[in-house]
Amino acid sequence: MLEVLGVEKKFGEKKAVHGISLSVANGEFLSILGPSGCGKTTLLRLIAGLEAPDNGTLKLSGEDITKMSAHERDIHTVFQRYALFPHMNIFDNVAFGLRCQKVNENEINGRVEEMLELASLKGQGKRSIQTLSGGEQQRVALIRALVNMPKVLLLDEPLGALDLKLRLQLQQELMSIQRRVKTTFIFVTHDQQEALNMSDRVAVMNKGEIVQVGTPNEIYEFPKTSFVASFVGGINKLEGILRADDSGRYIIDVENAGSFFVEPPDHCKKPGLKGYLGLRPEKITLFSRKPPTVENSIEGTIRAQSYLGTHTQYEVTLKNGTNVSVFQQNSQKLAKKVFQINDKVHLAWSIGQSHFFCD
């Protein structure tokens, strides 16, 4: 549906977008995820036609739209500040674009009512915008864009101003609406959980570049760089030197901590290379004694403990002074052992539960 080919954008001397190439399928829900200032909103504005690229090409359904103005593109945008017309009711806000196109009023009535039902606002078309909650305003902004049946809908952090409970509710509503209308959604966010929860695929950006594109599972379980691993979910990192043993297995030697089996990606399989062992907090298991059957383990001391409902978070200090976070799932009313501050513990994990990064 959409192709971004080698697109670049500079503002003065600063490159906001560095030669990005990206393809988005028809009916796909793609999230662009990254920290503030990474270029994700600039990329969205380039796709929308609100900014012109310095280099590169944009195609929609195979047609070159690079030099088209925003209103000529079959692309609509929902912004964080919904830009609804406060002097109009819900119905007139949703119908506004259709009336600008001089669509027949009978068709307008039918399409607007269909959208109101889709957004759980059936029979509420006469309500004033000023009486709506934040969540209701977000839904009106969404269907105001969708009623025009665009090929692509861009959403620029539309849930960012809402409280957590409402955001979680609207995530589910957005996903449901997108599946029903089958419109291609490109969703910009800096919220990792939001992107993982809602998307068919996620494009992770950093410093004006897309550093990895994949399904939520691929992004979380198989991060290609330490940045992706750290930004999406958080990770413990232990620095060390890679070597291979006599059997050809790879090991990372961590100073004053120990040696641990790893499976580095092909481009990192170079003995003597400095890199990082990466461990997700929930992939580590805590034991009172050294486990006999686990591939990797290390001793540490509990320095902090926090009960967080679904899990207990431990901060463990290793013998080399490094602090490691561990999440232990709470189940069966804390049937698992609850470790206390100053307890000596063994942290254990298998090769498949760790990562090696050399970037």
Describe this structure in words.
With 359 residues, the chain is an alpha+beta fold. Helices cover 23% and strands 35% of the residues. The protein has a six-stranded mixed sheet, sandwiched between helices. Strands 13-12-11-14-20 form a five-stranded antiparallel sheet. Helix 2 crosses helix 3, helix 2 packs parallel to helix 4 and helix 3 crosses helix 4. The mean pLDDT is 90.
Task: Please give the structural blueprint.
Layout: E1 2-11, E2 14-24, E3 29-33, H1 40-48, E4 55-60, E5 63-64, E6 75-78, H2 90-100, H3 105-118, H4 134-146, E7 152-156, H5 164-181, E8 184-189, H6 192-198, E9 201-206, E10 209-214, H7 216-221, H8 226-231, E11 236-244, E12 250-254, E13 258-262, E14 274-279, E15 285-287, E16 296-307, E17 311-318, E18 323-329, E19 344-349, E20 354-357
Parallel strand pairs: 3-8, 3-9, 6-7, 7-8
Antiparallel strand pairs: 1-2, 1-4, 4-5, 9-10, 11-12, 11-14, 12-13, 14-20, 15-19, 16-17, 16-19, 17-18
Question: What are the key terms here?
Answer:
359 residues; alpha+beta; 6-stranded mixed beta sheet; 5-stranded antiparallel beta sheet; 23% helix
Strand order of the largest sheet: 6-7-8-3-9-10
Helix content: 10-25%
Described by the principal axes of the CA atoms, the overall outline is elongated
State the helix count.
8
Structure summary, number of beta strands = 20
Q: What is the average of the pLDDT values?
A: 90
* Largest sheet, strands/sense/barrel: 6 strands, mixed
Q: What string, H for helix and E for strand, traces the elements in order?
A: EEEHEEEHHHEHEHEEHHEEEEEEEEEE
Beta strand %? 35-45%
What Rg is obtained from the alpha carbons, in whole angstroms? 25 Å
Q: What's the end-to-end separation, in Å?
A: 33 Å
- The secondary-structure class comes to alpha+beta
Spans with pLDDT under 50 lasting ≥5 residues?
none
